[in-house]
Amino acid sequence: MLVTRHVLAAPSPYATPYYIVRGTNPGPVMMITSGVHGNETASMAAAQKLADDCASGRRVIHSGTLIIVPRVNQQAYAKKIRGKPDLNRTFPRRKSGKSKHPLAAAVFKLAREHQPDWWLDLHEANGLSQLTPRVLGQTLITNPGSSSVPICRRVIERMNRSIPVGKHHFNLKRHELPGSARTAASRLLHAKSITVETCWSLKRAVRIKYQTEIVHHFLREAGMT
Ligand SMILES: [Zn+2]
Questions:
Q1: What is the DSSP letter of 147?
Q2: Order of strands across the sheet that contains 118-125
Q3: Nearest CA among 176, 140, 146, 182 for reference residue 158
Q4: Is the pLDDT of residue 9 over 90?
Q5: What is the distance in A from the centroid of ligand 1 to the CA of 197?
Q6: 81 CB contacts (<8 Å, ≥6 apart)?
Q7: Its Gene Ontology molecular function terms (predicted)?
Q8: Deepest in the core among 24, 86, 167, 195, taking most CB within 10 A?
Q9: Could you tell me the distance, in angstroms and rounded to a whole number, from the CA of residue 165 to the centre of ligand 1?
Q10: Cα 117 to ligand 1 centroid, rounded to whole Å
Q11: In the 8-state DSSP scheme, what is residue 192?
Q12: Average per-residue pLDDT for the chain
């Protein structure tokens, strides 16, 4: 296993580190982004921890390639704000379309170079979906008709089995969101793409734990660990 550190969108005010983890054996490519929204800090911490754990050998990727961009929007992160414009509406909407923001363009260029089979975009949101179905906290979101639907269901089942508090359980949402990283990855790269949303009113350590466990379930589903 080989872990290398790179800088995306350099040199520019948007420069941000990313990591490529190459497993010993060939296999799928998974892209993990976090911090598309700068105030969703537990997801960023989980992504950075995954990169650090791979670098230290605590987490081993046997097969395939993992690309991790832990803090996409550094400027928004520095101010702990969501970011303006909303970066998750600026990804390309069709094959010939362009990103509407240089940072989204840099992320999507990286993705086009590596052609991910999987894309996990880690976020945080308001509310508990178990109590209020229209909120996004504690959900996995995928595009309608995506081949990732049954995989998301398995991951949710495993997560919920390990979460004793029923109202903290995860739910699946199917939603097409033009301009989002998820929908761009699904439409243009035909990746299995999933948005992970923890509820940010839960304790930070718990949110990091949930994000980490969900990523590990998907790595296992992809046959990478
Ligand atoms: Zn978000």
A1: T
A2: 2-8, 16-22, 63-69, 25-34, 118-125, 192-199, 139-142, 171-174
A3: 140
A4: yes
A5: 8
A6: 38, 39
A7: hydrolase activity, acting on ester bonds; metal ion binding
A8: 195
A9: 24
A10: 22
A11: E
A12: 97
Quickly tell me which residue has 């999933």 as its tokens. 194
Distance 123 CA to ligand 1 centre (A): 4
Give the confidence band of 96 by pLDDT, cuts at 50, 70, 90: confident
Write the pLDDT tens digit of every residue in 122-145: 999 999 999 999 999 999 999 999
For residue 73, how far is its CA from the centre of ligand 1 (angstroms)?
A: 11
Domains present along the chain, CATH in parentheses = 2-221 (3.40.630.10)
Cα angle vertex 103, ends 55, 41, to 5°? 55
CB within 8 Å of 137: residues ≥ 6 apart:
124, 125, 126, 127, 128, 129, 197, 198, 199, 200, 201
- 125 Cα: distance to centroid of ligand 1 (angstroms): 6
Taking the centre of ligand 1 as the mean of its atom positions, its distance from the CA of residue 102, in whole angstroms, is 18
**DSSP assignments along 11-23, one per residue:** SSTT-EEEEEEE-
State the distance from the centre of ligand 1 to the C-alpha of 24, rounded, in angstroms. Answer: 33
